[in-house]
Design brief:
The protein contains two helices and twelve strands. It has a twelve-stranded antiparallel barrel. It is mostly beta strands.
Protein backbone atom coordinates (compact mmCIF):
# COMPACT_ATOMS: atom_id res chain seq x y z
CA UNK A 1 0.00 0.00 0.00
CA UNK A 2 2.85 2.39 0.91
CA UNK A 3 4.63 1.58 -2.38
CA UNK A 4 1.45 2.38 -4.37
CA UNK A 5 1.06 5.68 -2.54
CA UNK A 6 4.69 6.55 -3.25
CA UNK A 7 4.25 5.79 -6.97
CA UNK A 8 1.06 7.89 -7.06
CA UNK A 9 2.78 10.79 -5.26
CA UNK A 10 5.78 10.58 -7.59
CA UNK A 11 3.49 10.64 -10.61
CA UNK A 12 1.73 13.75 -9.33
CA UNK A 13 5.07 15.47 -8.82
CA UNK A 14 6.20 14.60 -12.35
CA UNK A 15 2.98 15.86 -13.92
CA UNK A 16 3.13 19.02 -11.84
CA UNK A 17 6.71 19.64 -12.97
CA UNK A 18 5.81 19.08 -16.65
CA UNK A 19 2.93 21.55 -16.48
CA UNK A 20 5.09 24.06 -14.64
CA UNK A 21 7.72 23.93 -17.38
CA UNK A 22 5.60 24.26 -20.52
CA UNK A 23 3.24 27.20 -20.80
CA UNK A 24 -0.04 25.96 -22.22
CA UNK A 25 -2.51 28.15 -24.15
CA UNK A 26 -0.78 31.50 -24.32
CA UNK A 27 -3.86 32.42 -26.32
CA UNK A 28 -7.09 30.41 -26.38
CA UNK A 29 -7.29 28.98 -29.87
CA UNK A 30 -5.36 29.34 -33.10
CA UNK A 31 -6.69 32.88 -33.73
CA UNK A 32 -6.53 36.07 -31.71
CA UNK A 33 -9.35 38.05 -33.39
CA UNK A 34 -8.71 38.60 -37.09
CA UNK A 35 -5.19 37.23 -37.18
CA UNK A 36 -3.47 34.04 -36.09
CA UNK A 37 -2.19 33.36 -32.60
CA UNK A 38 0.93 31.47 -31.59
CA UNK A 39 -1.14 28.35 -30.88
CA UNK A 40 -1.47 25.21 -33.02
CA UNK A 41 -4.01 22.40 -32.92
CA UNK A 42 -3.07 19.21 -31.13
CA UNK A 43 -2.20 16.16 -33.21
CA UNK A 44 -5.16 14.51 -34.98
CA UNK A 45 -7.53 17.34 -34.01
CA UNK A 46 -9.92 18.54 -36.70
CA UNK A 47 -11.42 21.97 -36.17
CA UNK A 48 -14.45 23.43 -37.93
CA UNK A 49 -14.63 27.23 -37.96
CA UNK A 50 -17.46 29.66 -38.71
CA UNK A 51 -16.58 33.37 -38.87
CA UNK A 52 -18.88 36.30 -39.62
CA UNK A 53 -18.59 40.07 -39.97
CA UNK A 54 -21.67 42.31 -40.16
CA UNK A 55 -21.95 45.82 -41.62
CA UNK A 56 -21.01 49.07 -39.89
CA UNK A 57 -22.78 49.70 -36.60
CA UNK A 58 -22.64 53.48 -37.09
CA UNK A 59 -21.25 55.93 -39.61
CA UNK A 60 -22.70 56.77 -43.04
CA UNK A 61 -23.62 53.14 -43.88
CA UNK A 62 -24.75 52.12 -40.38
CA UNK A 63 -27.45 53.17 -37.98
CA UNK A 64 -31.02 52.10 -37.45
CA UNK A 65 -31.90 51.85 -41.17
CA UNK A 66 -29.44 48.94 -41.48
CA UNK A 67 -30.26 47.73 -37.97
CA UNK A 68 -26.76 48.74 -36.84
CA UNK A 69 -25.11 46.48 -39.40
CA UNK A 70 -27.12 43.32 -38.80
CA UNK A 71 -28.90 43.72 -42.15
CA UNK A 72 -25.56 43.39 -43.93
CA UNK A 73 -22.98 40.62 -44.16
CA UNK A 74 -19.54 42.14 -44.71
CA UNK A 75 -17.94 38.69 -44.96
CA UNK A 76 -18.52 35.05 -43.99
CA UNK A 77 -15.91 32.29 -43.75
CA UNK A 78 -16.14 28.52 -43.25
CA UNK A 79 -12.97 26.49 -42.68
CA UNK A 80 -11.55 23.12 -41.70
CA UNK A 81 -8.19 22.99 -39.95
CA UNK A 82 -6.16 19.99 -38.80
CA UNK A 83 -3.26 19.23 -36.46
CA UNK A 84 -0.71 17.00 -38.22
CA UNK A 85 1.30 17.02 -34.99
CA UNK A 86 1.22 19.03 -31.78
CA UNK A 87 3.42 21.64 -33.48
CA UNK A 88 2.29 21.52 -37.12
CA UNK A 89 -1.16 22.34 -38.50
CA UNK A 90 -2.79 23.09 -41.85
CA UNK A 91 -6.06 24.74 -42.81
CA UNK A 92 -8.37 25.40 -45.73
CA UNK A 93 -11.25 27.87 -45.90
CA UNK A 94 -13.71 29.66 -48.13
CA UNK A 95 -14.84 33.28 -47.71
CA UNK A 96 -17.68 35.15 -49.34
CA UNK A 97 -15.37 38.12 -49.82
CA UNK A 98 -16.10 41.79 -49.24
CA UNK A 99 -16.46 42.73 -52.89
CA UNK A 100 -13.92 45.51 -52.39
CA UNK A 101 -12.08 44.35 -54.27
CA UNK A 102 -12.69 40.57 -54.27
CA UNK A 103 -15.40 37.96 -53.77
CA UNK A 104 -15.29 34.14 -53.74
CA UNK A 105 -12.03 33.53 -51.89
CA UNK A 106 -10.28 30.26 -51.10
CA UNK A 107 -7.44 30.23 -48.56
CA UNK A 108 -4.96 27.67 -47.33
CA UNK A 109 -2.18 27.84 -44.76
CA UNK A 110 0.45 25.95 -42.83
CA UNK A 111 1.66 26.90 -39.33
CA UNK A 112 4.58 25.43 -37.40
CA UNK A 113 5.51 26.02 -33.77
CA UNK A 114 9.27 26.37 -33.26
CA UNK A 115 9.32 27.21 -29.54
CA UNK A 116 6.99 26.83 -26.60
CA UNK A 117 7.55 29.09 -23.59
CA UNK A 118 9.31 27.06 -20.93
CA UNK A 119 10.85 28.56 -17.79
CA UNK A 120 12.94 25.52 -16.88
CA UNK A 121 14.58 25.48 -20.32
CA UNK A 122 15.10 29.26 -20.41
CA UNK A 123 12.57 29.79 -23.19
CA UNK A 124 10.85 33.09 -22.36
CA UNK A 125 8.64 33.10 -25.46
CA UNK A 126 6.57 30.92 -27.73
CA UNK A 127 7.28 31.20 -31.45
CA UNK A 128 5.47 30.00 -34.57
CA UNK A 129 5.87 30.66 -38.27
CA UNK A 130 2.90 30.91 -40.58
CA UNK A 131 2.50 30.94 -44.38
CA UNK A 132 -0.74 31.28 -46.33
CA UNK A 133 -2.14 31.83 -49.79
CA UNK A 134 -5.50 33.11 -51.02
CA UNK A 135 -7.14 32.65 -54.41
CA UNK A 136 -10.15 34.46 -55.80
CA UNK A 137 -12.24 32.56 -58.33
CA UNK A 138 -14.72 35.35 -59.02
CA UNK A 139 -15.66 36.05 -62.62
CA UNK A 140 -13.22 38.44 -64.27
CA UNK A 141 -14.47 41.80 -65.51
CA UNK A 142 -13.86 42.96 -69.08
CA UNK A 143 -12.71 46.37 -67.82
CA UNK A 144 -8.92 46.02 -68.03
CA UNK A 145 -8.42 49.10 -65.84
CA UNK A 146 -9.81 47.22 -62.81
CA UNK A 147 -7.87 44.83 -60.61
CA UNK A 148 -10.69 42.29 -61.03
CA UNK A 149 -9.81 41.88 -64.73
CA UNK A 150 -7.11 39.26 -63.90
CA UNK A 151 -5.15 39.23 -67.19
CA UNK A 152 -3.37 36.08 -66.00
CA UNK A 153 -4.49 33.30 -63.65
CA UNK A 154 -1.53 34.01 -61.34
CA UNK A 155 -2.99 37.49 -60.73
CA UNK A 156 -5.71 35.89 -58.62
CA UNK A 157 -3.25 34.91 -55.86
CA UNK A 158 -1.99 36.67 -52.74
CA UNK A 159 0.49 35.40 -50.15
CA UNK A 160 1.22 35.96 -46.48
CA UNK A 161 4.15 35.04 -44.26
CA UNK A 162 4.34 35.78 -40.56
CA UNK A 163 6.50 35.30 -37.48
CA UNK A 164 4.31 35.07 -34.38
CA UNK A 165 5.96 35.73 -31.01
CA UNK A 166 4.05 35.52 -27.73
CA UNK A 167 4.64 35.45 -23.99
CA UNK A 168 2.34 34.63 -21.12
CA UNK A 169 2.75 36.57 -17.88
CA UNK A 170 1.35 34.65 -14.94
CA UNK A 171 -2.03 32.98 -15.35
CA UNK A 172 -4.04 35.85 -16.83
CA UNK A 173 -2.08 38.10 -19.21
CA UNK A 174 -0.63 37.27 -22.62
CA UNK A 175 1.06 39.50 -25.21
CA UNK A 176 1.89 38.83 -28.85
CA UNK A 177 3.96 40.46 -31.59
CA UNK A 178 3.30 39.50 -35.23
CA UNK A 179 5.60 40.88 -37.99
CA UNK A 180 3.72 40.14 -41.22
CA UNK A 181 4.55 40.33 -44.92
CA UNK A 182 1.81 40.35 -47.58
CA UNK A 183 2.41 40.03 -51.33
CA UNK A 184 -0.36 40.41 -53.91
CA UNK A 185 0.41 39.37 -57.48
CA UNK A 186 -1.85 41.99 -59.07
CA UNK A 187 -2.89 45.40 -57.72
CA UNK A 188 -4.32 48.68 -58.94
CA UNK A 189 -2.05 51.25 -60.56
CA UNK A 190 -2.01 53.41 -57.40
CA UNK A 191 -1.27 50.46 -55.13
CA UNK A 192 1.82 48.39 -54.29
CA UNK A 193 2.37 44.61 -54.35
CA UNK A 194 4.27 44.27 -51.08
CA UNK A 195 3.05 45.33 -47.66
CA UNK A 196 4.86 44.97 -44.35
CA UNK A 197 2.81 45.25 -41.16
CA UNK A 198 3.53 44.88 -37.45
CA UNK A 199 0.81 43.23 -35.44
CA UNK A 200 0.35 43.37 -31.69
CA UNK A 201 -2.20 41.78 -29.38
CA UNK A 202 -3.09 41.11 -25.76
CA UNK A 203 -5.36 38.74 -23.89
CA UNK A 204 -6.49 39.27 -20.30
CA UNK A 205 -8.40 36.45 -18.65
CA UNK A 206 -11.20 37.56 -16.37
CA UNK A 207 -12.02 33.97 -15.46
CA UNK A 208 -10.84 30.63 -16.80
CA UNK A 209 -13.60 30.73 -19.42
CA UNK A 210 -13.87 34.48 -20.17
CA UNK A 211 -11.27 36.87 -21.55
CA UNK A 212 -10.76 40.33 -23.08
CA UNK A 213 -8.72 40.61 -26.30
CA UNK A 214 -7.21 43.46 -28.29
CA UNK A 215 -5.46 43.30 -31.67
CA UNK A 216 -3.82 45.89 -33.93
CA UNK A 217 -1.92 45.70 -37.25
CA UNK A 218 0.13 48.75 -38.24
CA UNK A 219 1.12 49.10 -41.88
CA UNK A 220 4.66 50.42 -41.94
CA UNK A 221 5.43 51.53 -45.48
CA UNK A 222 3.96 52.24 -48.87
CA UNK A 223 6.45 49.64 -50.06
CA UNK A 224 9.06 47.42 -48.47
CA UNK A 225 11.89 49.76 -49.57
CA UNK A 226 9.96 53.02 -49.24
CA UNK A 227 11.15 55.22 -46.39
CA UNK A 228 7.81 57.02 -46.03
CA UNK A 229 6.02 55.83 -42.92
CA UNK A 230 2.51 56.40 -44.24
CA UNK A 231 -0.50 54.33 -45.20
CA UNK A 232 -1.64 54.01 -48.79
CA UNK A 233 -4.52 56.32 -49.77
CA UNK A 234 -7.94 55.44 -48.32
CA UNK A 235 -6.55 52.60 -46.19
CA UNK A 236 -6.61 52.29 -42.41
CA UNK A 237 -4.88 50.04 -39.93
CA UNK A 238 -6.84 47.07 -38.65
CA UNK A 239 -7.94 47.58 -35.02
CA UNK A 240 -10.08 45.06 -33.14
CA UNK A 241 -11.32 44.39 -29.63
CA UNK A 242 -13.34 41.47 -28.36
CA UNK A 243 -14.52 39.01 -25.77
CA UNK A 244 -13.97 35.27 -25.82
CA UNK A 245 -15.83 32.52 -24.05
CA UNK A 246 -14.42 29.03 -23.68
CA UNK A 247 -16.62 25.95 -23.28
CA UNK A 248 -15.91 22.26 -23.59
CA UNK A 249 -14.78 21.78 -27.20
CA UNK A 250 -15.92 25.26 -28.31
CA UNK A 251 -14.32 28.68 -28.55
CA UNK A 252 -16.69 31.62 -29.07
CA UNK A 253 -15.41 35.13 -29.82
CA UNK A 254 -17.33 38.39 -30.22
CA UNK A 255 -15.37 41.15 -31.97
CA UNK A 256 -15.67 44.85 -32.78
CA UNK A 257 -13.43 45.72 -35.73
CA UNK A 258 -12.98 48.16 -38.58
CA UNK A 259 -11.90 45.30 -40.87
CA UNK A 260 -14.34 43.62 -43.21
CA UNK A 261 -12.43 40.59 -44.52
CA UNK A 262 -10.63 37.56 -43.13
CA UNK A 263 -7.00 36.40 -43.52
CA UNK A 264 -4.03 38.74 -43.36
CA UNK A 265 -3.93 39.24 -47.15
CA UNK A 266 -7.41 40.77 -46.89
CA UNK A 267 -7.67 42.75 -43.67
CA UNK A 268 -4.16 44.24 -43.84
CA UNK A 269 -4.34 45.77 -47.36
CA UNK A 270 -8.13 46.20 -47.64
CA UNK A 271 -9.34 47.92 -44.48
CA UNK A 272 -11.17 51.07 -45.53
CA UNK A 273 -13.16 51.87 -42.37
CA UNK A 274 -12.10 54.43 -39.78
CA UNK A 275 -12.90 53.95 -36.09
CA UNK A 276 -12.84 57.75 -35.63
CA UNK A 277 -15.74 58.03 -38.09
CA UNK A 278 -17.74 55.37 -36.19
CA UNK A 279 -17.02 52.90 -38.98
CA UNK A 280 -16.71 49.62 -37.12
CA UNK A 281 -18.71 46.42 -37.10
CA UNK A 282 -19.70 43.49 -34.93
CA UNK A 283 -18.50 40.00 -35.73
CA UNK A 284 -18.11 36.59 -34.21
CA UNK A 285 -16.32 33.27 -34.60
CA UNK A 286 -17.25 29.79 -33.40
CA UNK A 287 -15.00 26.74 -33.44
CA UNK A 288 -15.66 23.08 -32.73
CA UNK A 289 -12.90 20.50 -32.27
CA UNK A 290 -13.13 16.83 -33.19
CA UNK A 291 -10.61 14.12 -32.33
CA UNK A 292 -9.81 12.06 -35.43
Amino acid sequence: MINKLCVLFLGILILTKIHAQDVMETFNGTRILNGHSVETLKKNTLQFRIEHRFGNIAGPSGGVQNFFGFDQAADIRFAFEYGLSDDLMIGFGRSKGTGDPFNSLLDGFVKFRILRQNKAKNRPISLTVYAASTLTYQQATENISMVQSFPEFAHRFAYTSQINIARKFGERVSLAFMPTYVHRNYVNANDINEILALGGAFNVKITKELGIIGEYYHTLYKGIFDVENTLRPNNYNSLSAGLEWMTNGHNFKIVLTNSRGFTESQFIPYTYSNWLNNEFRLGFSITRNFKI
